[in-house]
Amino acid sequence: MKIVIDAFGGDNAPKEIIEGVLLGAQKHADVDFVLCGDKQKIESILNSRDGGKFTIVDAPEIITNDDMPTEAIRNKENSSLVKAFDILKNDEDAIAMVSAGSTGAILTGAIMKIGRIKGISRPALAPILPTKLPNKDVLLIDSGANVDCKPINLQHFALMGSAYYSILYGKEDPKVGLLSNGTEEHKGNELTKEAYPLLKQAPVNFIGNVEAREYMSGSVDVMVAEGFAGNVLLKASEGAVLAVLSLLKRSIKSHLSSKIGALFMSKTFKELKGRIDVLGKHGGSPFLGCKKLVMKNHGSSNRNNIASSIDQAILLHQNKLIEKIGKALEVASGSNA
Amino acid sequence: MKIVIDAFGGDNAPKEIIEGVLLGAQKHADVDFVLCGDKQKIESILNSRDGGKFTIVDAPEIITNDDMPTEAIRNKENSSLVKAFDILKNDEDAIAMVSAGSTGAILTGAIMKIGRIKGISRPALAPILPTKLPNKDVLLIDSGANVDCKPINLQHFALMGSAYYSILYGKEDPKVGLLSNGTEEHKGNELTKEAYPLLKQAPVNFIGNVEAREYMSGSVDVMVAEGFAGNVLLKASEGAVLAVLSLLKRSIKSHLSSKIGALFMSKTFKELKGRIDVLGKHGGSPFLGCKKLVMKNHGSSNRNNIASSIDQAILLHQNKLIEKIGKALEVASGSNA
Question: pTM here?
Fold first, then answer.
């Protein structure tokens, strides 16, 4: 079993990416890691700490956020990302690719190089957010990769999100909700009203329309949304969390009593920070709907995020995520027809 | 100058509504208040405290959230809300109507009874939210009254929101942003891409696409959104704020040191609560795009919210909100043609 790494994608590449792979390798002795990127630089960071076990594929070019995704994937053949995709595509033993590089380039490369599961027209990104409950996260699909969706895309998001959540949290039949502007079945826009019956007949535990207010309440496991609305949901939640923390900080600074109080509350602030930062726990998100596992990590990923992403890729592979999506799709297509 | 009050709309009606009007009357001696609702009950609450100055219009029926809006407006002629609309429509001196009743019925009644400003096909609700900055709020238009909008509707939202914000905060040329999934001009969905040039040529200070993350950052004054996305933005922000407060509370309870710290931080928690609750400051939102001022208050409004809503109605009337919207619309129609 091999995992391919884009060692030169992300703000902290290549150092943190490679350190993350070293952490992953300690935990998963049976996995072979293939590192793509400037060979000399990779070797100097590794400094033989991998015991010569890693395969290094020289790919001196780098794709940045300034590159146009389609052109970059087509023309930068010697970039770390394109090389990584080529290996994932051609090597049967390669089960996953991990990159913290340009989102656009990763998504474009995944579709152009790896291809979609038959029947899925729009693969999706499914990030995870914390809820107000201590041990409960919520999955959002799609978070912005797909705008102007068709109703059938939302059904596919439901299937893919449900299969993914179920493996990640070991929960059978996670609760799937459809993002809408009201809970009643007749609420929504044209798209969600048409998608509603498709989600109802899909092989998932569909609980109906869910309002954005419920996203962080813990009452739903998988929130299905068209990409534009999903993007608003994700970013509004992030922005609001940051705004509250900023207001809190500013107020503490302006009162001596609050400053003293804050000293006593260090445990709480630490807990709050840890709870909000789910990214650290999961590392990356798979680009759901592709024929092989493409793990997209946040650009700011550190070694722990990369190691978590490797853990997740192995978990998803062992639990046959892609096969499960394929099967759910067959069942759904049967009832759609 | 008269203000018409639906004395029987809202969770705390009629008591808190009437107390709110009494507060408003103390401040605005030149305004005549017309209270619609069960006359006997209104009189018993007033208990002559208005010095016989209020006009009471007997309207014993009540419209609830369970009523279908269109039917209720058509058939419940003797309801406090319909009577209030009739007076607002027919009495030239009536400048505004204030209600904390069913949102659907208020919006339907506003369109059926009062009518739209010429050229505006979709009036909109524009609630105000706090930002992370101390003295800066942000206006969202539309927050859910209109889904499946056309590009021209978003241009109208920009004009109306800008005129409203400018009066409410005394700020000329407030910054108007278009909610999108990225800041670049080419980002967005079909709707926002078509709306972009229309906002650019409108007589407002258009600053371009704005991501949901920026909503509470204070970098924009008026956020223009199609109603579905706007609803997601509003409710996701509310949900996230509540989730952070809930996590904070739970964590404080579970550590003795945090409990002690929290005692010292009472000023900060009070400030945070006050900052988040903008509702109390403004009372209600006008339903923008109608021929006369229809102030929609939250169902849970108390006397202070009603009094604030009366203040706001007078401010908007004195500063000629409706005329300003009409003029901006003429300018925009000129450049659209």
Answer: 0.91
What integer pLDDT is reported at residue A279 of this predicted model? 52
Same domain, A252 and A315: no
State the complex-level ipTM: 0.89
Sign of the four-CA dihedral A149, A152, A153, A157: positive
Look at residue B291 in the predicted model and tell me its pLDDT: 97
What single DSSP character describes residue B121? S
CATH of the domain at B106: 3.40.718.10
Q: Which regions of chain B are under pLDDT 50?
A: none
Query: In which region does residue B148 sit, left (phi positive, over 0), alpha (psi from -120 to 50) or beta (all else)?
Result: left
- Mutant choice from A226, A237, A257, A273 vs B, greatest count of B C-beta within 10 A: A237
Mark whether B57 and B147 lie in a shared domain.
no
Give me the total of CB pairs closer than 8 Å, taking one residue from chain A and one from chain B. 206
Q: Is residue A237 classed exposed, middle or buried when 0-12, 13-18 and 19+ CB atoms within 10 A define those classes?
A: buried
Residues A68, A31 share a domain: yes
Q: What is the pLDDT of residue A337?
A: 63
Do A140 and A108 share a structural domain? Answer: no
Contacting residues of A for B272, CB less than 8 Å apart = 244, 247-248, 251
- Nearest CB neighbour to A217, from listed B192, B214, B239: B239
Residue B202 CB contacts under 8 Å (≥ 6 apart), including other chains: B155, B158, B159, B328, B331, B332, B335
Strands (E), chain B: 2-6, 32-37, 55-58, 94-99, 124-125, 128-130, 137-141, 175-180, 205-211, 222-224, 284-288, 293-297
Domain region containing B58:
2-120+289-320
